[in-house]
Structure formats: C-alpha cells, structure tokens
C-alpha cells in the first residue's frame, strides 16, 4: 500500500484509561488524516465514549498522548483534561442529543460563546458573512432566524454541524448522527459529510448502522472490550464481518419463517387518541394486527406512535372510534384491565415505566401479577415461590445479575430489558406491544430481543412493534404502517416494500406520491 | 479529589451504623455550644446519660416519652416510604386525642375491655380521616400535601383550643382550658405501679411489628413500596396507585391518632392544648434516623426520648437550657441526612490525576 499523502491531523498513541478494575481503553492508537472519514465501531461499553471523552478533555488518559495538528500543520501534544484546549485545537463534536438552546434562533446558537461576554451586542455582520460562506460551501441550507424549537430534528442537526464549522474545526466527531433521521435526511447528511471531507475536514463517524458505515467511510476502527481489534479499509468489509469483529463471535443469520396470521387481536376503527392540539396524537386510525404476525409502525418519534402505545398499554382511552384490544372493547384507561386481557407491554422507557429500580429483580418480575394466586396467599406475598421462579426466569432469559434479590437499578440496560421481557412474555400474551424494544441496547441484547419477539409471533401472539429504526422494522415486521402527524397509513406487506417509500411517508408524503 | 461512586447494594450493617453514627455525631457537635456556655462538657453528658437511663425511674421516664414518638415515627415512616410527605402528624395526634376524650370521658359507659379498644379505634379513625383529606387533594387535584398537612396542624390546634374553651371545657377544672378526664374504664393501665409507664408502649411496639410485617410481607405493602419508589412504573404495571396512596394516608394518620390516644388515655388523663411538645414533628426525625424502617423506629424513638429526658434532668442540675435537646435532635436529623450519602455512594479519595 502506498503511504497516504494526506497530512495527519490527529494522532492518538497508546491511550489507556482505567476505572478501578475496569480498563475502558487499552493502549489505543488512532491516526486520522485530513479529508478522511473514519468510522468508530463498537458495542455499548467497548470504550468509544471514553476515547472521545479523552479527546474532548472530559477525562485525562492514564497513559498515552493525543497529538493534534496546529494551524501550521505541525503535530503538537494536546494538553489533557481541558475542553477549552480541545475546542481551541479544532476538535468539534455533534452529540446524539443536541446541545442547543431551544428558545434562541439558529444564528444565536451558533455564535453563542464565540464572542466575549463584555462585547456590547453581537457583531452580526462578520458572523453572518462567515456563516453564509459556510452554508454555500457545505450545502447545509437551513433557516437561521427562527427559534431552534421550531426546526425539525434534521435541521437542528445542521445547526449543530454549522456550529462546529463556525469554530473552524479540523476534526469533526459525529455521534450516532443518523439515529433520529429519516433515510432521506440521512442521505443528505452523508452528502454533506463527503463535501466537507473533500475540503479537508477529518471526520470520525460513530454509528451502529453498519450499512451506513460501509457506504460513507473509507476506514473503519473497531473497539471491543476497551481494545482496538481492527483498523482496516471499509473496502472488502461486509456487515457480517464488521458485526463479528464488534461482538467477537459470528452472529448467526436470523431465520424467519413466513407468518401464518389468524384472527385479528388488535382492531382499531377510526380511533383518535389525545387532545386535538397535542403533537403526539392519533386521528382516525385504522389498524388490524392478527394473531401470528408482526406489524411494524414506522415514524419519527412524536408523530402519534406514543399515543398509539398509550392506548394499547392502557394509559389512554380513545377520544373517538372503536378499539378492540385482545377481544375487549377499550373504552377507558385501565392498565390492569389490559394486562388481564392478555396484553404484554414492553414500554419505550424501561427506567421510568418498565422497572422499579429500587426493587429487586424478583419483585420487578412479579410487578404486574402480584395479586395472582401463585404470588400471594391470603394477602401475604409468597416470597420463596417468587424467588424460585425469578431465579428460573433469570436463567431462561440469560439475565446477567447477582441473583433474584439484586436491585434492578444495578443492572445494565440490556439486562433490565430482559427482566421486562421475562415478565411480559412468560405469561404467553395474546398481544405484545413492543415500543422501541431495542433502543440503547448492544448487538447481543438486540438480537436476543428480536429472537424472542419472533418466537412470540410463531407461538401465535399478535405483535405490534413501534420503532424508529427502519432496519429493525424491515427485519422483523410482516407488515409496516407509517405514522405521520397523527395519521396512520394502511399497513403494507414488508415483502417488496421499498425502504425509500417508507422514508418519504415518514416525512409526510402520501403513499401514492411516495410510490 | 473526592469521588462518589453509586452503590449497587447497601449492606444492612451500614444503614444501622450510619444511624448510630449520626446520633453520636449530633451529641459530639452539641459539645461545642455546651463548652461555649462554660458548662463542664463531660460532666454535662454524664448527667444527661444518668437522667435518661441512670436508674429504673429514669429509664421508665424515657420509655414513657418514647411511646408517642414511636407512634408518630411509624406514621412518618409509612408515609415517607410511599413518598407521601405527611408533615401533619401533630394535627392528627390532636385529632386522635380529641376523639379519645369525646368517646372516653363519659359519652359511652362500658367495661374497660370494650371501652379501651373503642377509644383506640376512634382515635385512629379520627387521625386517618384527617389525613385522607390532603391525600385525596393530592391524588385528585395534584395539591401539594406538604403545604396542606402542615397548615392543617394549625387549624386542628385552634379547633382543639376552641373546644377546650367551649363545649368540651371541664367545669370542675377551676377555669383552666382542659377537657373532662377520661373514665377509668377508658384508661390504659400502668405497666408498673408507681411509674408513669403505661400500656401505650406495648401497643406501640406491637404496631411497629405489625407494620414491619405489613410492608415487607403483604401484597398491599408491596404495592405501597412500588408506588413510593416509582409511581409511574407502578401505574404502568397496573397497580392501584390512588388506592395505595389512600391506604398509606389511612395508616399514617391512624398511627398519629393513636399517639394522641396513648398520651390522653395512658398518661395525662385529660386533653389540654399543650398535650404534645411537637411529637408530630419529632416523629419525622425519628423515622429519618430509623431509615424509614418500622423496627428501627423503636430504638430511634428511645434515643430521641432519652435526649429530651436527659437534657431536662441535666438542665435542672447545672442550669444549662434544656433547649439543648432540640439542638441534639436537629443535629441528628442533619447528620443522618449527610450520612445518607454513605449508604447511597461509596466515597473514594483519589489523587488529582496527572497528565
């Protein structure tokens, strides 16, 4: 291979960081050249966040040095532990959760903090001219003069990138930038990143969507258990090979037998949920989910899938229309009634809705069924029976925890979700509501959740899967409906469905236009 | 640099150690104003200890004082477990005391084995009913129970004064604002003749044991803990959040009402407007020091009672104000709150990391 002629802008050498007995980063070397797009891959806990935090001055490395090119192109060591030094050296980062003041305009957000507190008024003229030039060069067209709260997620992200560019970054870190975007927005972001790279910007792209990594990046660095396990060109890599590098073992291809749907278990006719002025609401929705099939709901969050989940979970009642859920007419908010009707509910937020952190694994396991005869006798909790069954569920669902008495708070997100799955699926529900069931989980836990949802379907349960992850929806769903601004489309067969059409419908185009 | 690392589990011994340590720390800190006032510090503490537990008589006096504190401590513990911030135990105590006098001072004539339970149940119901109002305001309208229960204390106390100056005033009491005495059949017997210690203590200890079993072993106790730790998730899981809250209100108010019954029927024999020197508020300290454990409330109440009784005795002997007791109680609360950090975090001292 020829040596790369492009100059180095960033060089990490032997970065090591320990937290007590845990080595979060183990002698990691990483070189990034001007104009290069490098993917940083790894499961949760692999050390990506720690490495970026060291780069950004939030942590100080125990060993190793960071060199960054100065204005003259010469590499110089970056003082550790100082976010100011990192910013001044030209390192910029766009976080998954934006750091924007929502009531200020895009322009104000961008110049915020770049001018002295003592200057009277903003020096708008010069800033404006510089921004106009950046927008022309990068193609990041967006309205700079409305409050950020009124912009879409994609537009807010453009403001974040412009904010970094305005500070003359030479290295831009994008943390899961496409997690919240529609496929069209993700494409436009990829085009922007390529343009910026051509102009000499070095980009570190953190993502778990392997097809994006393969399409956009020229080099991929994989971390596993704190160590760098691969640093290779993307050319020649495949999704399977990258996934294997991340997990450290081959991932079996998912086998999915065709659906064999039966009678409808969830039947919505013209159902409206939520006040008319509310953003996350449902207007006149029709939806049928039959026994033995998975129906996926695609949509950017806040478009009505929250209202749908609340209705099915029993936290909300229909304002209009007829909702038959597991054979029961759902006319009022009644979580206990929905559970009794045989609905298993996996909530979107497992910390706030799904589990009670201070209670034990065993107690969370019986949270919904504490009044059932197997859990109590004459009002007294049958503690040893519950512990015994919880211990069996821990083994069956492979929950990594010290035992049934461990507080759920101490568990990782994936293990917490397994406790929820055990609680919900053990009772063989007729209808499963899975709302963002894999958000924040690593590949191993995600695969496990997917396997169990398909197993529930094959057992004859109707599964309603609400997700923002189109890959997940296409992998699991037999049919997919799209929700936008409270309106739910008809469910379409996944076989032969174009992901781009779904993306356009998520952005508000009607099915006929999107076709 | 000091780092706080969250604990996955808190061992029981540590919780106990923090409570005991907080009590000791409070006593040590009290040495400072004691020394400033020129009193012999060590001698003062010896006098306090003797006054609280130096002989059988002192010990009996401490346990007598601990009796209402166990009831109000339990009232606070069960409410705070469910994140129901009942600051109104003082008012509920007076409501219970009022019910005791209303039922036990001649309205009903019956043998003791009928009248004593009747008076206790009446007092518990009065306290429970009083707390049910703010609980319903909270669950129905989202009214803040801290404000409502706190303000209701003053309403109840003024109502008691009105009753004692008016319809309930004892004509035989030489013009003093006090109620007629409760009948002998409504009186809680003394435990030991010649001492003030009465059966209220036994009832309080039984109440603590029952509450412990209720919270840790029963379905409703489970629901109350779940609602207290995460009401959102409890609601999602279909638990009856409103009913659980109402039940907690009934229990907490009822226990505080029993404190009033125990003081009137066991100790004083009649009701005055100065029946309680803040037992309702001190119950919050007792419960906090006990880490909201019903069993822990018993030693915690005895400690706080001992501080009050010991400080009284010390102030008589060396002329230091007995407000010192309030200082110890307040410092115990502060110490246990600081100590609570230890139960939730491991505190690790690390050297400032070098570059």
From TrEMBL, chain A:
Xref: InterPro entries: AAA+_ATPase (IPR003593), ABC_carbohydrate_import_ATPase (IPR050107), ABC_transporter-like_ATP-bd (IPR003439), ABC_transporter-like_CS (IPR017871), P-loop_NTPase (IPR027417)
Pfam families with a match to the protein in the record: ABC_tran
Molecular function terms from GO: ATP binding
Cited Gene3D superfamilies: P-loop containing nucleotide triphosphate hydrolases
SMART domains tied to this protein: AAA
Domain named ABC transporter: residues: 10-250, 266-510
Coiled-coil residues: none
Keywords, alphabetical: ATP-binding, Nucleotide-binding, Sugar transport, Transport
Source organism, top-level taxon: Bacteria
Family from the record: Belongs to the ABC transporter superfamily.
Name of this chain's protein: Simple sugar transport system ATP-binding protein
Source organism per UniProt: Ancylobacter amanitiformis
Organismal lineage: Bacteria, Pseudomonadati, Pseudomonadota, Alphaproteobacteria, Hyphomicrobiales
UniProtKB/TrEMBL annotation, chain B:
Entry membrane topology: Multi-pass membrane protein
Main location: membrane
One Pfam family this sequence matches: BPD_transp_2
Keyword Transport: yes
TM helices/strands, residue ranges: 12-36, 56-80, 92-108, 114-137, 146-164, 197-215, 236-259, 279-311, 323-342
Keywords annotated in UniProt: Cell membrane, Membrane, Sugar transport, Transmembrane, Transmembrane helix, Transport
Subcellular location: Cell membrane
Keyword Cell membrane: yes
CDD domains documented for this protein: TM_PBP1_transp_TpRbsC_like
Listed name of the protein: Simple sugar transport system permease protein
